[in-house]
Design brief:
Order of helices and strands: EHEEHEHHEHEHHH
Structural class: alpha/beta
Strand order of the largest sheet: 2-3-1-4-5-6
CATH superfamily: P-loop containing nucleotide triphosphate hydrolases
Shape: globular
CATH class: Alpha Beta
Largest sheet: 6 strands, mixed
CATH topology: Rossmann fold
Distance between the termini: 35 Å
Number of domains: 1
Bound molecules: guanosine-5'-triphosphate
Helix content: 25-40%
Length: 204
Amino acid sequence: RKLNEDRRVKVMLLGDSGVGKTCFLIQFKDGAFLSGTFIATVGIDFRNKVVTVDGVRVKLQIWDTAGQERFRSVTHAYYRDAQALLLLYDITNKSSFDNIRAWLTEINEYAQRDVVIMLLGNKADVSSEREIRSEDGETLAREYGVPFMETSAKTGMNVELAFLAIANSRELKYRARQQAGEPSFQIRDYVESQKKRSSCCSFV
Ligand SMILES: Nc1nc2c(ncn2[C@@H]2O[C@H](COP(=O)(O)OP(=O)(O)OP(=O)(O)O)[C@@H](O)[C@H]2O)c(=O)[nH]1
């Protein structure tokens, strides 16, 4: 396998309207934060960014979805292609946190079975209006067996880290290797080859 061979990962940003998905993506892509104006995403939008992990270029194709209910049927169609999901809530908005379970139910229904999920508590810079404690995010994440971080699309805290964690994830690396056609360990083939080598017919 060539050292700088590309790997592609489709990542989707999910969560209620206003939790900061678009800002999160802009912060990662351009290192900028546009404060004040809130322009709700209509339908779906995407941007690419290449990161390097262990000398391998990983092309992240990031889909920014609309959090508003009326666009759900549009975004459902894209779940199937996503290999990773960043699921955001807003630490200053309790209902966005309470809705995480509903989001996970949707994910369970529409996404690939082996999709990589990370839970993110965004707007961690606004500590004065915090409604959800960091421990509550951790507890929920543990319940579903997904990693968790608090982030800020405004200051950039943990934004790059979240995407790098996805690009680095062992599950996705393993799948990329398999897709590249590297032989994987097949227990059945192994047993068959051992049978052939053995002169004794009682090999189990
Ligand atoms: N203080 C602070 N404000 C944020 C942060 N992230 C987003 N915002 C603000 O929250 C509002 C909503 O941000 P968006 O990124 O547009 O939200 P969204 O999740 O993409 O919303 P939809 O497109 O409707 O799904 C904007 O006014 C942002 O300026 C953050 O980390 N900290």
